[in-house]
C-alpha cells in the first residue's frame, strides 16, 4: 500500500514552474528521501502533502485520500516538521507542546500524558520546563519533532530536519528517527540536500531538479548508477543530464 501517491503534479508561481508533472509513490512503512538542490521543488511538494498549497493540476493522495478533501483526518494522519518551526521563545517546551496539542485536537484528558510522552521520545524531559529561547538548534528541532508526534501520525514529513546542526546534533536526531521506525508503524519522508543522510536513513529516494522528477526508486539502485557505486556521482550525473552539461560538483548538495 502507498502512503503517498502524486500524479502529474504541477505548481507554478507566476512564470516559475515549481513542480512540473511530478508522479511518485511512497510505500507505507518506509523512510523516503526527497533529494535536490535549493529550488528543486521539495518544500513545495511538502506543502501540498499537508494541504497548505493546492496544485495547479494533478492530484495528491495520502493514505488513499485526496488531500483536498481530507480536512481534519489529514491533520491527524500527518505530522509535519518544517525547517523553522518558529516557537515563541518565552514559552517553555512543555507549554509549546500543550498549546500544539490543543490546536491538534488532542482530548483534554490525554493532553498531559501525550505531551510528556513526546518530550520523552525526543529526549527533552529535563529541558521541558525551560524557555524555548534558551534551547539550542538541535533542541528546537527535537521539540518540533515532538510537536509533530502529538497526534500520533502515521506519516511524518521532515523538511531539512538536520540543516545547521552540528555532528552530535545530527547523530542524536538520526538515533531518534531510527528508534521511531522500530517502535511505531510510521512512514517517514525527509527532504534533504545531504547525501549521507539519505544513505543513513532512507530505503527509497527521489531526485528533484528544477521541478522535474529525475529519479525515484531504491537508494541502492541510485547508487549503482554512479561510476564508483556512490550516491554523489550518480546524483551529479542526473543533474548534469537535466542541464545538458558534463557532471561536476554541486555545492548545495553535501556528502
From TrEMBL:
Residues 4-235 form the ABC transporter domain. One of its GO terms (molecular function) is ATP binding. Gene3D superfamilies: P-loop containing nucleotide triphosphate hydrolases. Keywords: ATP-binding, Nucleotide-binding, Transport. InterPro entries: AAA+_ATPase (IPR003593), ABC_transporter-like_ATP-bd (IPR003439), P-loop_NTPase (IPR027417). Coiled coil: none annotated. Belongs to the ABC transporter superfamily. This is Cu-processing system ATP-binding protein.
